[in-house]
Amino acid sequence: PQGSEEAKAFVNAFLKRSMPKKKDEAIQDILTRKAVVLEHYSKKKAKQKRKKTKGFTAKQRREMRLFEIEPEQQRYTIFLPLHELWKQYIRDLCHGLKPDAQPHMVQSKLLKADLHGAIVTVTKSKCPSYVGITGIILQEFKHVFKIITKEDKLKVVPKLNNVFSLEIDGFISYIYGSKFQLRASERSAKKFKLKGTIDL
């Protein structure tokens, strides 16, 4: 136990350290009120800048051939299980595709759905050589579909100026490629207009 003088000296020294900006008279004045608010000066921590993880550039992806399908993998039968998975995905998305389902509801779901694995047919085109091409969509880019046909040929079909038909469980939907020029990831967030000018 300390004596009263030692305790007083300790308190004064403690307050002086805790409130370095105040003079002795001001500290004594505060003490008479029997309520002391101690000042605390924390050192500001330097904010660490987060490093953003940079992905590959388009040039690097081309050089690494990330999106190229090897010739030995370009076989229609290899991708039939992918088509079966896609059909199940669409059935789940559209709650079973029942006969009483409203066509515009199915259409709106298909517009935002992932089309990798879907079987599509080019029904109309400004370029006659594209009409009739049927196959499984292997890759979808902003401007083109990569389709594998039953003849094991990989076709790159532009979306622009082409109309594609898509059939599942009796529902036939038409995709106007000119209005569909988006990446798959962007398409899922886009609001499509129900009415508008339809052209090739």
UniProtKB/TrEMBL annotation:
One of its GO terms (cellular component) is nucleolus. GO terms for molecular function: ribonuclease P RNA binding. Keywords: Nucleus, Phosphoprotein, tRNA processing. It is found in: Nucleus, Nucleolus. It comes from the Eukaryota. Component of ribonuclease P, a ribonucleoprotein complex that generates mature tRNA molecules by cleaving their 5'-ends. Belongs to the eukaryotic/archaeal RNase P protein component 1 family. This is Ribonuclease P protein subunit p29.
